[in-house]
Structure formats: structure tokens, C-alpha cells
Design goal:
- Its EC number is 3.1.3.37.
- Keywords: Calvin cycle, Carbohydrate metabolism, Chloroplast, Disulfide bond, Hydrolase, Magnesium, Metal-binding, Plastid, Transit peptide.
- One of its GO terms (molecular function) is fructose 1,6-bisphosphate 1-phosphatase activity.
- The chain is of the alpha+beta class and 397 residues long.
- It contains seven helices and 22 strands.
- The strands form six sheets. It has an eight-stranded mixed beta sheet, with helices on both faces. The chain has a five-stranded mixed beta sheet with strand order 17-16-18-22-20, with helices on both faces.
- A hairpin with a 5-residue loop joins strand 14 and strand 15.
- Helix 2 packs antiparallel against helix 3, helix 4 crosses helix 7 and helix 5 runs parallel beside helix 6.
- The longest helix is centred in the first third of the chain and has 22 residues.
- The radius of gyration is 21 Å and the shape is globular.
- The protein binds ligand LNFHSRP7.
- Ligand LNFHSRP7 binds next to helix 5.
């Protein structure tokens, strides 16, 4: 990243990077790139929730300097756009815009409910109207409500309610949505990052379709920062939106390629006890001194590949440790996000986007990562890879 004096995500600079000399509790560095001057506390605006907050840099200071992309639609999108601006520039489908905005509203509320949940015993709970609900059930309700409110969703179903629910929207020109309301709900108490996953299919079918048929997919990520990471069929890239203090989603990063880099996230590691090929793959990562980055939450573990633009996530099955991840609610939407970001996915033999979803509860093993990582994954597990390369990359040797 260029040295601008601003610590932030790519080109979406909003947070000043203070040195200890510059830091003073009542003064903050100017958000202007390259500036070390101070702005007075008077110029900070009050946050709606938590008192004083950082002022947002003027729009002109966070315009993208990136080279134009191939799609004529995406060339008009700029880092710093609001979610609404971005969607309007990215697609002419007003129904899809409405759906993605409605889901963004739900994600914002879920983020707040997760952040303020009480955890104890077996669950983390928060209020929903007059009820106290476990946060995953609460997220589930909020998402169904958002889909009904969008007026463009025909059917929805969730990991919590794995049956088609009629949302009242049209089948023709409308969408069907599958979602995991709060992936990682069992690690909310530990304060690890958790998230919502959803995939959007055109029309009224969520079975007999493939992940490649999705028109959009997204994750809401509830960690130190709250982000909405989405991809649309019509435009390249996977796009990250940051939830600002004032409640708006702002476009802060896009990912269009996943390169090589030694970072691994090994799920279902217990399968290495009776899957020698998976054990061989894990040995390779350790021998080659890969960095372990694993939380046990699929959303942050996959999101880091998109944000860091490198790495490999694996969740491999064995006779005694069966595949647990759901193709419809988790694996296909995340596969869409990874592949739109320039990465690859695999169930061992093919892209997870090419798997026909035969039933709502179908499970699969999966890997997401860079091209060479997926080649290594397929070669090590099954002896060959459909992704041809000139040089062998494998742990299989
Ligand atoms: O399904 C998940 C979390 O379940 P829950 O907390 O009930 O919402 C996923 O996040 C995966 O379980 C996770 O990514 C991971 O692959 C699990 O593998 P392991 O760490 O070996 O249990």
C-alpha cells in the first residue's frame, strides 16, 4: 500500500494512522492523504450510537485511482461509493438492487444484535420485539423479514428452516434465496468473527440448479469491523462494503485476483486420521512453512482469502468424519464469491459451482483458494487435476 499517512483498506481511506508522537486524546490526524496536521475535535461529528467518532474523509479523497476494468458497467463504480450507488452502476436489474439493499439492512441489524448479545450457558441471546431469542434464530427472522420486504423474493430457505418458504414475490423476474443466518453461532461467546452467508438464484428454484446459476452471493461479516462482501453475476470482482458509524455501507475494496501465498485454513482436521491423502496435504503445508490462519468460522476463514488475495481453505471428509458443510447455504454462495474474486473452488474433482444441488440439505467437502492451491488439492486427494498447468505444484509427489 502507498504511504499516505492513512491506515485503511485499499483506497477507501477513512482512518488516520497515528504515530505515538502524533497521538493526542483530543486531536486526530487529518484524514487528508500525506498530511500530518491535526484537526480539532470540534470538526468531529457525533456518532449515533457511541459518542464521538472519526469524521469521514471528503469523497474526493477516496476516489479510486485503479485502472478501468473490462466491464463497461464496473468502470463507473468507484471505491467510496455507497451500496446504493454501487448497485445502481453495476446492474440494471432493479429487483436485484432492491433485494441486495434489503439484505444489507438486515445485516446491519444482525451486526448490532450480535455485538450486544448476552452469552452464557449454551446460547447467546438478544431481544427481538418482545422476545428473547438465540442470535442465530433472531438473524434468521430478520433475514426472512428482509426478503419479504424486498417484494422480489419468491422462495427463501435457510439452514435453520431448510424448507422453501413463500416470500410473496414473483417467480418470473423474481429470485429465490438460500441463506445461513449466522454461521459460527457457537463461537459468538468467544468473540470470534461470525457471519451471514446467502446466495441468490433467479426464479423459483433452489434445487436442480447449480452454484453457477446464482445471480449474486454475499456474506455479512461481524468482526472488529462489519462488512458486506458481495458479488454480482453481471460484473467482475468481489466487492467489500464497510459499515460506517453513520449506518451506511461504503465500498472499500474490490478483489479481482487471488494469487499465491503460503496461508492455510484446515477444516475437519480430524479426517486426517483416516484420510491419508488429506494428511499428506496438511503435512505439505506444515513442511513448506505455511502460516496457519484458522478460526473455525467458515465466513472469516474464507473471507481472509478474498481480503489477503491468497491462501487455501480446506474442509475434507473421511469415512469417520463425514462432510458437514451444506452446498446450498454455505458452499455454493462462498464458491461464487471466491470465483468472482479470481480464485478457484473444488470438491476434489470439479468446481463447487458446477455441482447440481439435488436437495436442500446436501453436504460436500470443499476447498477454496488460488489456482495452484486448488490444483495441489485435487492432485493430492485424487491424483490429477482438471486445472492443467505446465509445472507440477503438488504435495502428491
Ligand atoms: O458450520 C460452521 C459453523 O457452525 P455453527 O457454529 O453451528 O454455526 C462452519 O463455520 C464450519 O463448521 C467451519 O468453518 C469449519 O469448517 C468447521 O470445521 P472444524 O473446525 O474442523 O470443526
Amino acid at each position: 500500500m502507498e504511504s499516505t499517512g492513512i491506515a485503511c483498506c485499499a483506497r477507501g481511506a477513512i482512518l488516520p494512522n497515528l504515530t505515538s508522537q502524533q497521538y493526542h486524546p483530543t486531536a486526530l490526524a487529518s484524514p487528508r492523504a500525506g498530511s500530518t496536521s491535526f484537526i480539532s475535535p470540534k470538526s468531529l461529528k457525533a456518532s449515533s450510537l457511541f459518542g464521538e467518532s472519526l469524521r469521514i474523509a471528503p469523497r474526493s479523497s477516496y476516489k479510486s485511482s485503479k485502472a478501468p476494468k473490462s466491464s463497461s458497467l464496473v468502470t463507473k463504480c468507484e471505491i467510496g461509493d455507497s451500496l446504493e450507488e454501487f448497485l445502481t452502476k453495476s446492474t440494471t436489474d432493479k429487483g436485484l438492487i432492491s433485494l441486495m439493499i434489503s439484505m444489507g439492512e438486515a445485516l446491519r441489524t444482525i451486526a448490532f444484535k450480535v455485538r450486544t448479545a448476552s452469552c452464557g450457558g449454551t446460547a447467546c441471546v438478544n431481544s427481538f420485539g418482545d422476545e428473547q431469542l438465540a442470535v442465530d434464530l433472531l438473524a434468521n427472522k430478520l433475514l426472512f423479514e428482509a426478503l419479504q420486504y424486498s417484494h422480489v423474493c419468491k422462495y427463501a430457505c435457510s439452514e435453520e428452516v431448510p424448507e422453501l418458504q413463500d416470500m410473496g414475490g414473483p417467480a418470473d423476474g423474481g429470485f429465490s434465496v438460500a441463506f445461513d443466518p449466522l454461521d459460527g453461532s457457537s463461537i459468538v461467546d468467544t468473540n470470534f468473527t461470525v457471519g451471514t452467508i446467502f446466495g441468490v438464484w433467479p426464479g423459483d428454484k433452489l434445487t436442480g440448479v447449480t452454484g453457477a446459476d446464482q445471480v449474486a452471493a454475499a456474506m455479512g461479516i461481524f468482526g472488529p469491523r462489519t462488512t458486506y462482501v458481495l458479488a454480482l453475476k453481471d460484473i467482475p470482482g468481489t466487492h467489500e462494503f464497510l459499515l460506517l458509524d453513520e449506518g451506511k455501507w461504503q465500498h472499500v475494496k474490490d478483489t479481482t485476483s487471488i494469487g499465491e501465498g503460503k496461508m492455510f485454513s484446515p477444516g475437519n482436521l480430524r479426517a486426517t486420521t483416516d484420510n491419508p491423502e488429506y494428511a499428506k496435504l496438511i503435512d505439505y503445508y506444515v513442511r513448506e512453512k505455511y502460516t496457519l490462519r484458522y478460526t473455525g468460522g467458515m465466513v472469516p476463514d474464507v473471507n481472509q482469502i478474498i481480503v489477503k488475495e491468497k491462501g487455501i481453505f480446506t474442509n475434507v471428509a473421511s469415512p469417520s468424519a463425514k462432510a458437514k458443510l451444506r452446498l446450498l447455504f454455505e458452499v455454493a454462495p462462498l464458491g461464487f464469491l471466491i470465483e468472482k474474486a479470481g480464485g478457484f473452488s473444488s470438491d476434489g474433482e470439479r468446481s463447487v459451482l458446477d455441482k447440481v444441488i439435488k436437495n436442500l440439505d446436501e453436504r460436500t467437502q470443499v476447498a477454496y483458494g488460488s489456482k495452484n492451491e486448488i490444483i495441489r488439492f485435487e492432485e493430492t486427494l485424487y491424483g490429477s487435476s482438471r486445472l492443467k498447468v505446465a509445472q507440477p505444484v503438488g504435495a502428491a509427489a
